Amino acid sequence: MLRLEHIMSSPLVTVTPDLSLRAAAELLATHHLSGAPVVRGNEVIGVITSGDILDFQASREELLLHDAPRADEADWSDDAEIDAGLPWDEWEERPAATVERLGDATLEEDELSASTVDEAMTREVLSLPASCSVRDGAAFIARHRIHRVLVERDGEIVGVVTTSDVARAVAERGLAEETAE
Predict the structure, then answer these.
(1) Rounded to the nearest 5 degrees, what angle is found at the Cα of 74, between the Cα atoms of 73 and 79?
(2) Mapped to the 3 state alphabet, what secondary structure does the chain carry?
(3) Torsion of CA 4, 7, 11, 14, to 10 degrees
(4) Rounded CA gap, 149 and 122, in Å?
(5) Which of 29, 64, 101, 156 lies in the 20 to 30 Å Cα band around 16?
(6) Residue 142: burial class (beta carbons within 10 Å; 0-12, 13-18, 19+)
(7) Residues forming beta bridges with residue 128, ordered by sequence position
């Protein structure tokens, strides 16, 4: 029988809850991962995913847009000059210097650097035993509508299985009726 322990990724790349979201995003990108367990000491306290980071960023942008002052439609006309506090005259005169002065950091980058994994992580930790069949693991993933499940052995997290791992196992080995080994 094909088990989760046969297809899991191990060792795990983990993050701590106090890591900045920017650093977490960079770590995920560097390792070509879409998520990682969040650990405090030896305890897994959550999972951070690229989706969690995007949702966090989107919610912050929505708050900023919601709190931004709005002009009445009567204040707008076709020939009205729009002043959003940007240095338009400097931009027209010396674009490269203005870009350099404003820097490369955007509001989103600042928000991600100032925010931590703890603020965005999913706190529910779902895991299955390493001896679980891939078929049952796939059903669990589908039932919970998740993209990864942590794999444990003797109460310790030893790996992770993603939907991509399951798809690869099906493509390479199939999941026809399994027989006990």
Answers:
(1) 95
(2) CCEHHHHCECCCCCECCCCEHHHHHHHHHHCCCCEEEEEECCEEEEEEEHHHHHHHHHHHHHHHHHHCCCCCHHHCCCCCCCCCCCCHHHHHHCHHHHHHHHCCCCHHHHHHHHCEHHHHCECCCCEEECCCEHHHHHHHHHHHCCCEEEEEECCEEEEEEEHHHHHHHHHHHCCCCCCCC
(3) -70
(4) 13
(5) 64
(6) exposed
(7) 151
What is the residue whose two structure tokens read 């993050």?
15
Threshold 0.85, pTM exceeds:
no
pLDDT band at 42 (very low <50, low <70, confident <90, very high): confident
Tokens of 63: 């708050």
> What are the distances in angstroms from CA 86 to CA 101, 105, 114?
12, 15, 24
- Tell me the pLDDT band of 1, cut-offs 50, 70 and 90: confident
Whole-number Å distance between alpha carbons of 114 and 108: 10
| Model confidence pLDDT, tens digit, residues 108-165 | 457 888 899 999 999 999 999 999 999 999 999 999 999 999 999 998 999 999 999 9
C-alpha atoms less than 13 angstroms from C-alpha of 17 in its C-beta half-sphere: 13
Q: For residues 83 and 71, what is the distance between their CA atoms, to the nearest angstrom?
A: 12
Bridge-based pairing state of the strands 127-129 and 148-153: parallel
First to last CA, the chain: 6
